[in-house]
């Protein structure tokens, strides 16, 4: 997605060879217009998949997921990283190790909102080693629902998450795919060049 790649190039900060900071439009301050375009893009990519719900994880998955839900006219459920006192229903849970925070969280959603009649689109802000997405897959599968696809805003393709998820048979669609963050520079996988090879 050209607009997203430009935003990453102009506003992203490379913190190390494997961490990109995008606090100015996605992870802290949010650019609503960009989120709307991201939502439209996910809706167009996954049209025809018969998706009935979107599942994401707090907090940075929520903005793109809500915009996609708005475009697709379906509800959005976000997994919580901490138990909430008001979440008294039966919980579906999975353990996720956070790549950026280096901590392990039990993530959960209420079984009230996803069930075996649902086809679920999983959305997240970043895909690195695939831990967060796999945790969401486990939760969705516990509910009996089907995972119809995984939509990622920024995929770091030099890490193994995307391949792992594809090898498990999931459709993974990422709006920006980064092949390298080395020497402080963001390099994208150029779809056109890829098609020509
Ligand atoms: P994974 O679980 O795929 O290893 O990592 C994905 C999760 O870690 C995302 O939910 C995201 O919050 C965080 N993450 C992974 N890599 C980055 C990164 O380079 N920058 C930021 N801001 N978050 C990241």
Specify the number of helices: 6
Helix content: 25-40%
The percentage of residues in β strands lies in 25-35%
Main CATH class: Alpha Beta
- The global form is globular
The overall pLDDT average reads 94
Contiguous runs where pLDDT drops below 50 for at least 5 residues: none
| Multimeric status of the protein | single chain
Number of domains: 1
Number of E-type strands = 10
What's the SSE pattern?
HEEHEHEEEEHEHEEH
Q: Look up the CATH topology.
A: Rossmann fold
Report Rg.
16 Å
Instruction: Give the name of the CATH architecture.
Output: 3-Layer(aba) Sandwich
Please state the structural category.
alpha/beta
What is the end-to-end distance? 20 Å
What features would you describe in this structure?
α2 packs across α3. This protein has six helices and ten strands; from the N terminus they run αββαβαββββαβαββα. With 197 residues, the chain is of the alpha/beta class. It starts with a helix and ends with a helix. Strands 4-3-7-8-9-10 form a six-stranded mixed sheet, with helices on both faces. Strands 1-2 form a two-stranded antiparallel sheet. It has a two-stranded antiparallel sheet with strand order 5-6. β8, α5 and β9 form a beta-alpha-beta unit. The longest helix has 14 residues. Helices cover 30% and strands 31% of the residues. It has a single domain, classed as Rossmann fold (3-Layer(aba) Sandwich), CATH 3.40.50.2020. The radius of gyration is 16 Å and the shape is globular. Bound molecules: guanosine-5'-monophosphate. Guanosine-5'-monophosphate binds next to β2, β7 and α4.
């Amino acid at each position: 997605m050209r607009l997203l790649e430009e935003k990453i190039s102009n506003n992203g900060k490379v913190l190390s060879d494997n961490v990109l900071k995008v606090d100015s439009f996605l992870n802290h301050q949010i650019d609503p217009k960009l989120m709307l375009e991201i939502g439209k893009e996910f809706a167009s990519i996954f049209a025809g998949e018969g998706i009935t719900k979107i599942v994401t994880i707090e907090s940075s998955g929520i903005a793109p997921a809500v915009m996609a839900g708005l475009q697709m006219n379906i509800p959005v459920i976000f997994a919580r990283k901490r138990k909430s006192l008001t979440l008294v229903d039966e919980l579906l849970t999975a353990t996720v190790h956070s790549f950026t925070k280096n901590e392990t969280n039990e993530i959960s959603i209420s079984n009230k909102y996803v069930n075996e009649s649902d086809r679920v689109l999983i959305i997240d802000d970043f895909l690195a080693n695939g831990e967060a997405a796999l945790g969401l897959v486990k939760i969705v599968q516990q509910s009996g629902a089907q995972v119809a696809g995984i939509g990622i805003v920024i995929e770091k393709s030099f890490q193994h998450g995307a391949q792992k998820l594809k090898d498990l048979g999931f459709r993974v669609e990422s709006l920006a795919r980064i092949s390298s963050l080395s020497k402080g520079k963001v390099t994208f996988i150029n779809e056109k060049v890829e098609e020509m090879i």
